Amino acid sequence: MQGEDGAPAYTPPAAPEGMQMPSGRPQYQRPLPPSRGGRKFPIGTAIIALVVIAASVGALVVFSGAKVTVTPATNESYVTGDFIATVSGGDLPFEFVTVEKTATASVTSEGSETVNQPAQGTITILNKQATPQQLIKNTRFETPDGLVFRIHESVSVPAARGDVPGELNVTAYADASGDTYNVGPTTFTLPGLSGSATFSLVTARSDSPMSGGFSGTRASVGQATRDAKMAELRAALAPQIDEAIMTAAPEGYVLIPGASSVSYVTQPDGVASGGNVELSEKAVATAIVFPKTAIAKAIALQVVGAYAGQPVTLSDASGLALTSVGDLPAPGAQEFAFSLAGNVAIEWIVEQEKIAGAVAGKTRDSAEVVLSGFPEVDSAVLVLRPFWSNTFPQDPEKITVEVKKTAP
């Protein structure tokens, strides 16, 4: 069959048995476009944004705070003046410090000698009395085993301070030669005080062995060799003395050049390995040290016109020179008169709690005005975080105060 245009006519397929087919041509249906009204919300992007915001806020909270960095006021002046200090008290106190250093060297033997040599060593005399104890030359000190040692100079042992006995280090020498007296650390009584109340109040001890006791023939060196080697040993000891003094001094004290004296004591020869001779030289240094704050205040009262007694310290004392009025006093002295001359750097002490309390609860501008009136503050840097904060916390403990170290 043909259609009107001559093309073969459409013949619908036969329906399966029992089913009726729709009549006419099949109808083409165009696919429907996706619905625009059902677009989903981007939940993942929103979560990421919230996390970033939360992290930013958290960082601001973690790194928030208040900090004041203070540069202390300083004064550099030339001082020349007289001072009087008193032991362990008063406006300008001082303390005695005694240290010992020993250097040894092994020297090739140049011969032999027969010697009878007493042992010797340092003992510490203890005085529990409220008054100094005078001891004359050749005072005896006896060990628990009955060995007797003597001092070769008269001394004055400082008085006790409360429950702390006065102490004095001296060299004691055995009453006889021989190695019997080469004893280890021990205690001593003073036979000359026996029968008096002072006997139990004045005693002594040794913290290192007595040494050098010898009787017989041993290796020796000539005098020229001995003198040259001893000069080397003294040169080696010299730079160690000041360091040893400051190590032994109380914390916060300063040694001013000129406030110490050093004596050298040649030790008995010893026998070194290989038949050599052991030469030893001991340096004994006595120094007077001052609290940095007290000596700085005394100097400031003389050289700083606007000084009103605020807490100060010495940031540098290396340019000073101390000259004693008369001989440098020995342990047991109660006063010390001296003069100072030279360049000195004085630094005001900044009390961190005071600064924190002064700026607590104030705006940045008000805090700057307050700190400008503190004589101990040369300059201050104020930091408030986060950046929009303009007021310090009410609680001073939430304010960090840092004191900038000044270069000497």
Features:
408 residues, alpha+beta, 9-stranded mixed β-sheet, 7-stranded antiparallel β-sheet, 21 strands
Summarize the structure.
With 408 residues, the chain is of the alpha+beta class. Strands 2, 3, 13, 14, 15, 16, 17, 18 and 19 form a nine-stranded mixed beta sheet that branches. Strands 4, 6, 7, 9, 10, 11 and 12 form a seven-stranded antiparallel beta sheet that branches. The chain has a three-stranded mixed beta sheet with strand order 20-1-21.
Care to describe what's here?
This protein is of the alpha+beta class. Among the domains are: 63-72 and 350-403, no CATH class; 112-220, no CATH class. The protein has helices at 43-62, 223-248, 292-303, 352-359, 364-371, and strands at 65-72, 74-87, 93-107, 111-127, 133-135, 140-142, 148-151, 155-157, 166-177, 187-188, 202-205, 214-220, 253-254, 260-266, 270-271, 277-291, 312-316, 320-324, 335-348, 377-385, 399-403. Strands 2, 3, 13, 14, 15, 16, 17, 18 and 19 form a 9-stranded mixed β-sheet that branches. Strands 4, 6, 7, 9, 10, 11 and 12 form a 7-stranded antiparallel β-sheet that branches. A 3-stranded mixed β-sheet has the order 20-1-21. 23% of the residues are buried. The model is unreliable at 59-63 (pLDDT under 50).
What gross morphology would you assign? elongated
Write down the secondary-structure element order.
HEEEEEEEEEEEEHEEEEHEEEHHEE
- Whole-number radius of gyration? 45 Å
Total DSSP helices: 5
Distance between the termini: 121 Å
Largest sheet: 9 strands, mixed
Strand tally is 21
* Average of the residue pLDDT scores: 87
The amount of beta strand, in percent, is: 35-45%
Low-confidence stretches: 59-63
* Coarse structural class: alpha+beta
Helix content: 10-25%
